[in-house]
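Notebook p. 47: complex prediction with magnesium ion.
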Amino acid sequence: STGLMLPLSSPISVSTMTTASSKANLLGCVGGGQLGRMMALEAPRFGIEMKFLDPAGDNCPAAKVVSKEQIIKGSLKDASKIRELAMDVDILTVEIEHVGVETLEALEAEGVNVQPSGRVLTIIRDKFLQKEHFQEHKVPLGSYRKTSSLDDIKEAVRDLGLPLMLKSRTGGYDGKGNAVLKSGSDQDIAEALQKLGCDDSSTAETELDLYAEGWINFDCEVAVMVVRSSNNVDTESYPAVNAIQVDSVCRVVLAPARNVPTDIRKRCEELSREAIDSLGKGASGVFGVELFVTKEGNVLLNEVAPRPHNTGHYTQDACTVSQFENHLRGVCALPLGSTKMIVEAAAMVNVLGAPSGTEEDTLKSSNAALEMPTAVVHWYGKHGCRAGRKMGHINLTGSSQGEMDDDLKQLLDIEGIPLS
Ligand code: ATP
Ligand code: MG
Ligand code: MG
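Predicted complex, structure tokens below:
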């Protein structure tokens, strides 16, 4: 036995911050949305308290589950606010990669323990740098090309073919930084640039913050949550799941992945662990790895998120230890928990703000789920409901797929997710 594992000592003071502590009583998180909130719900069970920085302050989802003193209101890119958070905590983590990573790197240089590290966040938050990193480490990818000018885009159309996927290098989520080029015409390119917020009057002088991907004719999309401890000893993965997207937004997850042969599922899991290990020291906590399985049965990496991920929410009710608890364990250098499923089958349905935008309509699927023996509701407590906004999710579990599929179909119907 290695003795006491839980971090039970009293919080270290600001004056001792220069010695990076490996075990935390107080964990700071940049971002207090639903991911931060779901971390905070797990943390007290093993003696960890959490503190958050979020632009919505007391209105952010995490603020509803921790005390008022644990919330700092401010931009996720505001250096002074990030420093204020860092002052008080033993370890700093993130719930989103679109944050002031430069500040995190500066803090690390001053001895603050940032997990995952600023170096890892720098690679991942820029999707082009991500591609370059994984290419260098021989992780299988689709074709891609840096496109910092109009000429580059035209060249990419020639070399990678049509349709062409143009992506913002930074800041994208739910497909918002992506535009599909169906032709290489000037008009199509201009429309895509406008969608991506690139002002074409300035494109002549300034570099476009874009890159292009060749179109992938995938059979299905799969996701794997990988968790790595900051002591760099262990890398574990959760089972490969189907990540079903509608209009580039994750709507449904099926675990384990259906209609994917076992050997391909194993390949997805292995490739995901290898990809995260290739990030090296500082790759700690949970990583969401998004993959394409092609019609030929090849597995290609799409992108990685350095944090718990929407496609891993099913682990809350379907696995021994959830992605949120394992993220905390990973970033706090505690032993990782088992990633095994404790049920035969699980699913997750995202609850998006109803088209009407009213909370009443949005609550329909959750109310139905409350009556279902296979379902559990996870509501995020967001301040304000909007059509299409992620408001919560519903996890289903069963001792077989058959046991939960009727309930699943009913929820898909209420959420307006087309059945196939
Ligand atoms: P997330 O919310 O997952 O961070 P994102 O905005 O970063 O999403 P991507 O994951 O890059 O966006 O793309 C969103 C979706 O678009 C993918 O899940 C996939 O369905 C589709 N897609 C992305 N790249 C390609 C491609 N090269 N070829 C075909 N489809 C693609
Ligand atoms: Mg993304
Ligand atoms: Mg994605």
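Notes: The longest strand covers residues 218-228. The CA atoms of residues 52 and 71 lie 5 Å apart.
Next step: compare against the earlier run before touching the bench.
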